[in-house]
Amino acid sequence: MKKQQLYKGSLNTIIMKLLEQHGKMYGYEITQKVKEITQGEMNITEGALYPALHKMEADGFLDVEMDRVDGRIRKYYKLTESGVKETVSRMEELENFVRNMQNIVNPNLKLGY
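Request: output the structure for the sequence above.
Response:
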């Protein structure tokens, strides 16, 4: 399985976690932050990012703010109260998944979560 396929299933969780950490971000900023954090291992395309952002907005997890920057309108995304709760839930699920995968892949190594 390619790494990108693994990451794709986690895209919403990645976006939500970044927004939890940074408050509000615009699309390009999200793509660059992911690239920076993963040292170029993960690249989020606009074709994947914006549909995910729009879906999370429609689901009530994100609010949008418009701001004028250098004469251009920039769209910032931030978590709603519901989005914060969903992020906590997703992070718990992800931690459980990682722990279970680690137990399968290397049962002798115990992670301290």
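The CA atoms of residues 18 and 33 lie 8 Å apart.
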